[in-house]
Amino acid sequence: MKLEEIMTRKLESISSDATVYEALEKMVGKRIRSLLVRASHDAETDGVVTARDVVFKVLVKGLNPLKVRVGDIACRPLRCVSKDESVQNVAALMEQTNVARVFICDQEKIVGVVALMDIMQAALIDRARNAHV
After folding, report:
1. Which residue intervals define the domain CBS in the entry (predicted)?
2. Do 126 and 1 contact (CB within 8 A), yes or no?
3. Are 2 and 125 spatial neighbours (Cβ–Cβ below 8 Å)?
4. pLDDT tens, 52-97?
5. Which of 24, 41, 49, 92 makes a 20 to 30 Å CA pair with 74?
6. pLDDT tens, 19-41?
7. How many domains is the chain partitioned into structurally?
8. What is the model's pLDDT at position 42?
């Protein structure tokens, strides 16, 4: 199975200059666990901020989410693979690098994301397909 079949194409993003509070509002409002962080300065690269980052890097430490910039807690570099990569290879990459999501890139452009839940969904789809063979 190729990633193209299970990847999420609608990526939610936020500027690296946004506050963690803005990210928190967006993630809770859309009931999502991560945001693609778009670099807003030449010195930065794109990153990702997760619910885990918000909770453990800001809230648990008692920092004010209105005063912390998303770019300061974003994880970088993004793990990117081709949309033609296999689900098994991406799952292995996730294990090796201890990440929960991998971005799908097509000619330097991010076109989707695959998370652990998508990998589990792929296993169910694969089993259903093979049950009819």
Report:
1. 7-66, 74-129
2. yes
3. no
4. 999 999 999 999 999 999 999 999 999 999 988 999 999 999 999 9
5. 92
6. 999 999 999 999 999 999 999 88
7. 1
8. 85
Round to whole Å and give the CA distance between 133 and 127. 10
- Collapsing DSSP to helix, strand or coil, 8 comes out as strand
Query: What is the secondary structure of 39-80 as a DSSP string?
Result: --STT---EEEEHHHHIIIIITTT--TTTSBHHHH-B-SPPE
- Answer yes or no: are the C-beta atoms of 14 and 35 closer than 8 Å: yes
pTM of the predicted model, to two decimals? 0.85
CATH of the domain at 87: 3.10.580.10
Domain span including residue 92: 3-131
Helix (H/G/I), strand (E/B), else coil: 120:
helix
Which 8-state DSSP code applies to residue 6? T
